[in-house]
Amino acid sequence: MKRNTWQREAVREALEESPGFVSAQGLHATMKDAGSEVGLATVYRALADLATEGDADSLQQEGESLYRACTPGSHHHHLICRRCGTTVEIAADAVETWAREVATLHGFTQPHHVVDVFGYCADCSRLAPAHRIL
Amino acid sequence: MKRNTWQREAVREALEESPGFVSAQGLHATMKDAGSEVGLATVYRALADLATEGDADSLQQEGESLYRACTPGSHHHHLICRRCGTTVEIAADAVETWAREVATLHGFTQPHHVVDVFGYCADCSRLAPAHRIL
DNA sequence: ATCGTTTTGACAACGGTTATCAATAAGCAT
DNA sequence: ATGCTTATTGATAACCGTTGTCAAAACGAT
Questions:
Q1: Rounded distance, CA A125 to CA B30, Å?
Q2: What confidence tens digit (pLDDT) does each residue in A100-124 have?
């Protein structure tokens, strides 16, 4: 049976207070700074649980998993700032149906999809002129 | 100045002969089995170069980077079989414009996007009935 | 309070990737 | 061809995020 511990709840709360996507290690550091004495392994486990339960979104960037609290049950995608990490949730039914259709068209079943848009948010666009070509 | 070595060319050719996405280590093993004596580090470097030059697509799955040769210059996405790795290149102008629009709408600049669809291809759907719920 | 089972957490181990650095070889100039 | 400069190679070590280990702690039912 699944048990409720203050650690898991602390991770959930810390995640909800984080503005954008955070890494497990980052969240652990934040929590430690805030005085919460939670083990690193526990943070990893709690985040993985939250993700499988649908209470958190996760994405992979540069070899590490990033997490973000999300409204449970709703399927959506993200618009993420490459510099500051600010994230906007975006829903796009058109993309959902497109993904399903293109999969079926090629005989694929049980389709999943990964759709994320990265860029520089308004603020960071202002601060950082294009010294990055991409 | 950029130099041409037989190692880099060997990696390019091995990648082009691979049917789906391959990992750096997998490609290295394949090449070694085929008698090509190329260092692992070199394979990593060559694949990274190919990806930045636009001659290879890359995606991240389960903590590792996978690569695939692609027609240079063309932007497209993939429909990937979760079981056998077979890959279909898909073009979707609708998704391209959608990504650009949603980014601009929220004030984001220099938008990139990651759009990949995973599923079980026709063959694998037949072989593996749904003992995986997702 | 007691008990059985789950969870925790410090640390080791793991796996993919990158850095190191001496040895090699590509490409240019002569 | 020869030498020279410098990018590249490759064996290995280091790195870093993540997961396994396992004894100790604690949840929840009784």
A1: 44
A2: 999 999 999 888 888 888 888 888 8
Q: Given an 8 Å threshold on Cβ–Cβ distance, is A114 in contact with B118?
A: yes
- Of B87, B128, A17, the C-alpha closest to A9 is A17
Inter-chain residue contact B102 with A92, CB threshold 8 Å: yes
State the DSSP string of B34-92.
Answer: TT----HHHHHHHHHHHHHHTSEEEEEETTEEEEEE--TT---EEEEETTT--EEEE--
Q: Is the pLDDT of residue A62 over 90?
A: no
Say which of B63, B116, B134 has its CB closest to residue A113: B116
Does the beta carbon of A32 lie under 8 angstroms from any beta carbon of chain B? no
Structure tokens at A66: 């990033």
Residue in the structure block whose two tokens are 């079989």: B81
